[in-house]
Amino acid sequence: MSDSPAAGDPRHVLYHHRTQGKAVEGVHIRGITDALRADGHTVDILSLPGADPYASPKAMSPTRQATWWMRLVSKLPEPFFELAEVAYNAVVAWRILNWLRRNPDVDFIYERYSLFLFATVWIARRRKLPIILEVNDSAIVTRVRPLFFQRLAMTIEHWLFRKASGLVFVSTVFRDRALAAHGELAPTIITPNAANIDKFSFTAEQRDRARAQWDLDGHVVCGYLGAFVPWHAIDAFVHKIAPRLAEAPHLKLLLVGDGATYPALKEFVAEHGIGDQVVLSGRVSHDEVPGLLAAMDMAILPNAGDYTSPVKLFEFMACSIAPIAPDFDPIQEVLVEGETGWMFKAGDLEAAVEKVLAHSSKPEELARVGRAARTYVTNERQWKHNIRQLIDFRDSLKSG
C-alpha cells in the first residue's frame, strides 16, 4: 500500500457494509459518504449485492428495497440465518480482495460493523491497511432477533474490537458497555449522528401549504416521522395522550409514516373520535416529507435505544423543530434541557404527555428552542463535522 497522505490531502476510502442500505441505515451511509466526497475524498461503496444505499425508494419507511434473496434469508430460522451470516465472510473476502487488487491506492477501509463479519478486518490486517469499524450493533445489546450463537458472536466481536485499527461509537455509554464486556478495545472515538442543514431548510410557503393541506392552520403541531413499530412506541404515546387531548384544543398531532402498529393505531383514533386532533398521514412520498416537517412546531420521540443516537432527533433539530425526547444518556449528550429541547424520564410516557401539553401552550418558547436547536446542528452536528473528526482519527492510527 502507498504511504499515508498528509493531513488535509484527499483520501481514497472503501466504505463496506452488510446492511440492506435502507431507512436509517441508508441515511447514515449516505451522510458519511456524501460528506467525505464533498470534502474532496474518493469513496467507493461495497454493499450486499442489490443493496445500493443510493437506490432511494419512492416512498418512505418501510422500504421495499430488499431483493428476493435478502427476504428469503431474513425468514430463515435464527440458527440458519446466523450461519448464513458467517458463510457470507467468504463472499466478502473474495469481493474485498478483488477490489483491493484494482485499487492499490486506498488509504483506509471504513466498515459498518455487523455481527459475525470478520473477513474485512482479517484482510486489512494482512495488508497492513487501516480499517475503522463504525459500531451501531453488538452482541452485548438486546436485539429484535435474539442471538442463537451468542458465544460465537461474542468471540468474533471480542477479536474484532481489539484487532481493528479504530472504532467509532455513537455514544459514550455504548463504548463503555463494550469496554466492560470485552476488557480492551482498539482506539475509539464517540461520534453521534448528524443532519445536513441544507436538506432541512424550508420556506414559509412550504409550511403554509402543508398546514393548509392537512388542516393544521391555527394549531400548534406536535409531529412524529418514522416507522410505526413497537419499540418506537408512537402508538403507546397516542394511547396515553388521547384522554388528555380535550384539554388542549389548540394542539394537533401530525404522525407521518407507517409500519406494523399503524393499522391498529388508525383504528384506535377512529374508535375514539380523535381524528380531528390526531392526523395520520400514512406512507408518503419523499417529496412530501419536507412540507410535513415544515408544518411541525415540536416533535415527540416516545422511545429510543438506550445506547443509540437517533437520526430523527438531529433531523427535527435541523428543521428548527423543538424536540421532546427520552432522557437516555446518548440524548443527554446532545440535547440541552430548555435550550435545544426537552427530555422526559425514559419509559414514562405520562411524563412525555405532560411535556407535550405544557409546551404546546407556549408557541414563542417552541420557536426559540427550535431556532437554538437548528443553530446547534449547524455549528456542531452536520455530517461534515463527523467526517472531519473521522479523518483526524484515521491520521492518529497506525496502519494495520
Walk me through the structure.
With 400 residues, the chain is an alpha/beta fold. 43% of the residues lie in helices and 14% in strands. It has helices spanning 23-38, 68-74, 78-102, 119-127, 150-163, 172-182, 204-213, 234-241, 262-271, 289-294, 311-318, 329-332, 349-360, 363-380, 383-395, and strands at residues 12-16, 42-46, 108-112, 131-135, 166-169, 188-190, 220-225, 251-256, 278-282, 298-300, 322-326, 342-344. Strands 2-1-3-4-5-6 form a six-stranded parallel β-sheet, with helices on both faces. Strands 9-8-7-10-11-12 form a six-stranded parallel β-sheet, sandwiched between helices. Strand 11, helix 12 and strand 12 form a beta-alpha-beta unit. The model is unreliable at 57-65 (pLDDT under 50).
